[in-house]
Amino acid sequence: MLNYRIVEKAPFTVMGIKRRFNADTSYQEIPKFWNEWSADMKGLKGMFGICLDMDGKDFDYWIADNYAPWDDIPEGCEWTVIPGGLWAQFKCKGPLPNSLQSVNTAIWSEWLPALKGYSLAGNYSLEMYGPPTEKPEDYESYIWIPLKKD
Q: Which residues have C-beta within 8 Å of that of residue 109, sequence separation ≥ 6?
């Protein structure tokens, strides 16, 4: 059973670094991207993981933070606007990347196909990361999926 809620969010701007991935290998390759980033950090905290332009099997994956217009964008970073609207927010609890990947698989293979009254509203999704915890099993992250009412 997936733990989620549906909320309304205003548009917001993020900045970050991105790389192109293929859906068939993304569960192996995206954690490597995070490991590479954590060695350098490029001036980011890594609040979000964002999948954009998910047409077909290839997509852009961003390691991103909220953009503050009064701050400089770190070298090598870009910015983009995440549209406002309805979002299904799914709670993931436990060590990364397993907790997040298992919820993500259930969303796309079980939850979305069975969804009534709503449909997918865009070709993007977000991961939001919480603060570190003492025990990996207590760690909380979230997956956000954009929705529209049917």
A: none
Tokens standing for residue 148: 């529209």
- Asked whether 57 and 26 are in contact (CB, 8 A), the reply is no
One DSSP character per residue, 34-59 reads HHHHHHH-TT----EEEEEEEETTEE
What is the spatial distance between Cα 78 and Cα 48, in angstroms, rounded to a whole number? 14
Provide the 10 A C-beta neighbour count for residue 40. Answer: 10
Q: Which residues contact 41 (CB under 8 A, 6 or more apart)?
A: none
Phi, psi of 119 (to 5 degrees): -145, 170
Where are the domains positioned within the chain?
A: 4-149
pTM: 0.90
Under CATH, domain 4-149 is a member of which superfamily? Regulatory factor, effector binding domain (3.20.80.10)
Q: Could you tell me which residue, 144 or 44, shows the higher pLDDT?
A: 144
- How many other C-beta atoms can be found within 10 angstroms of the C-beta atom of residue 21? 20
